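Lab notebook, bench 4. The sequencing result for the construct came back, and we need a structural model before the next group meeting so we can plan mutations. Quick request posted to the team channel:

Model the 3D structure of this chain.
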Amino acid sequence: MSSLSNPETGSLGISIRVAGLTAVTLDAGKIGFRKEAGVRKDEGTFDQLAAFARDCLQEAGEVERIGIAVPGLISSDQDRVEYSAAFPELSRTELGSMLADALGKPVSVENDANAGALGEYNFGAGRGAESLFYATLGTGIGGAFVMNGEVWRGRSGFAGEFGYVAINSDGLRLEDVASGPNIVRRALGRIHQDATSDLALLDESELTVEKMVESAVRGDDFALMMLERTGTYIGSALASVINLLNVERVVLGGLIMSAGESVLESIVSRARELSFGPSFRDLVIVSGELGTDAYAIGACIVGNGK
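Done. Here's the predicted structure in token form:
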């Protein structure tokens, strides 16, 4: 079990991602309960989420409240999913109320990046920072701000849409080049120019960002090059955040960051190049410590009303 501090007891945190469902509880400074399950395309998303939550309630011990981390736009009252590209079925639903009725427990819903930010701020790479920007870099791209322990949500609750930051004068957005599907699209455009890469042996339909990350970890030069170039795009967008907000710390999470230090270095190098010098000098940019558990851990905090 992972060592944590400042536990939030009585709350179950669940994250739903394309890769699957994860649930945790926090107890006496550690992850006391953890459960995972896949998400099937041939079954309703809500039904799977509700069934998974019921199983967790039976196995996790005493739970008073539930927090759910969802990739998408969440209403300011933390009940309604306004839009989710990853799970369209959940869009325009009062997910919190629906789950509360199904489970008999209070349920709060949070954007996954906001939840990840809270997880890292309280228990991971953000500990001790007064101001933090968190980015999740995977199938989609999200961002969140934490200021003095609270998520800064903006006027309508949608602050932190990092994927929408423009990275060139033509309006190309970070999401257009650095989200998982778009990394694969870019790789397919030049993969056959590098016959030495293991990825070139795959059928095009088999290439995923997960396989690119795995190849990069094994030292595949092509995979590393594509992910490092992705890091340059991320660094360009990150410089805008640094210049506008002068945050104390940036924490980068998500699948792409598991590819190795060279990706982080490419992000930092580009951000340094484009950032206002004094703001960058007082900044720390680090990879997240909690991995994909950050979302469920943050959901635990959200479920506890924080």
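Residues 128-287 form a domain with the Nucleotidyltransferase; domain 5 fold (CATH 3.30.420.40).
Will bring this to the meeting.
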